[in-house]
Amino acid sequence: MTGKLNGRVALVSGSGRGIGREIALKLASEGARVVVNDLDADPANETAEAVRAAGGEAVVCAGSVTEDGFAERFVKTGVDSFGGLDIVVNNAGYTWDSVIQKMTDEQWQAIIDVHLTAPFRILRAAQPVISAKAKEEAAAGQEVFRKVVNISSIAGTGGNAGQINYAAAKSGILGVTRTMAKEWGRYKVNVNAVAFGPIRTRLTEGSADGDSTIKVEEKEIKVGVNPDLLSQMERMIPLGRVGTPQEAAGAVYLFCAPESNFISGQHIICGGGFVI
């Protein structure tokens, strides 16, 4: 690998499984020291062990990104373990779908909390650290760029029936991205977003008509995609198939690499050419 992220400290939420795990592994492979997070400690530890086995550095900060005090603990883990904070990837999340007339207030709020409120809190907690470091560097005549990558979705860029909660949250994170690019430009922080199209993960592998579920804080939540819909989507992807978690991680890496130092407030769609 190129080592373009050597010595950088990266927080990656939701990195125990799927896309988040691959993001953590990719950043670590380029030299970043990673704070791994997952709702459950076991998958977080497994990712951290995989990073270490490949010669990288990682620590774990397990827990729900929606818990009071989590954001401060997440940031503190990076600072205490590695002495700084350079990259934040707001990746944690899940789906809890229903058409509007069947969606409960609990469903709505849970998805807004994990996809929109949690990233807001993490960035708010990171501000004192980033500000202090940026001021030190400016006083020394140094220009050091830091990176924030927020994860959105084509549901946020174009809407998706049955996902009003998820679409609203993923649209909202694009507003957060554009705003923070303007707020944190003075700190030399690039704030961008990656909107994923169809990517094969545990949230999409099962059938929406079947019994595929995930457990989130003692709740069993049905996940999956209707097989006919998935097949239809695949036919609409110019590259001919859904993406892999490794390919999704590659898109995130683009916004973490130094080549993106003059790109901020933007989003790209990682979807094989598929847009809605």
Can you tell me the residue ranges where pLDDT is under 50 for at least 5 consecutive residues?
none
Overall tally of structural domains: 1
Determine the CATH topology: Rossmann fold
CATH C-level: Alpha Beta
Radius of gyration: 18 Å
Average of per-residue pLDDT values: 94
The helix-strand sequence is EHEHEHEHEHHEHEEHHE
Terminal Cα span = 35 Å
CATH superfamily: NAD(P)-binding Rossmann-like Domain
Strand proportion, as a percent range, falls in 15-25%
Helical content stands at 40-55%
| Major sheet: arrangement of strands | 3-2-1-4-5-6-9
What is the multimeric organization of the chains shown? single chain
Number of helices: 9
Output the structural class: alpha/beta
Number of strands: 9
How would you characterize this protein structure?
This is 3-oxoacyl-[acyl-carrier protein] reductase. Pfam families: adh_short_C2. Belongs to the short-chain dehydrogenases/reductases (SDR) family. The protein has 276 residues and is of the alpha/beta class. It has one domain (9-202, 244-270): NAD(P)-binding Rossmann-like Domain (Rossmann fold), CATH 3.40.50.720. It is built from nine helices and nine strands. A seven-stranded parallel β-sheet has the order 3-2-1-4-5-6-9, sandwiched between helices. Strand 2, helix 2 (41-53) and strand 3 form a beta-alpha-beta unit. The mean pLDDT is 94.
Map the helices and strands:
Elements: E1 9-12, H1 18-29, E2 33-36, H2 41-53, E3 57-60, H3 70-82, E4 87-90, H4 105-139, E5 146-153, H5 154-158, H6 164-183, E6 189-196, H7 202-205, E7 213-216, E8 219-222, H8 227-236, H9 245-254, E9 267-270
Parallel strand pairs: 1-2, 1-4, 2-3, 4-5, 5-6, 6-9
Antiparallel strand pairs: 7-8
Helix pairs in contact: 1-2, 1-9, 3-4, 4-6
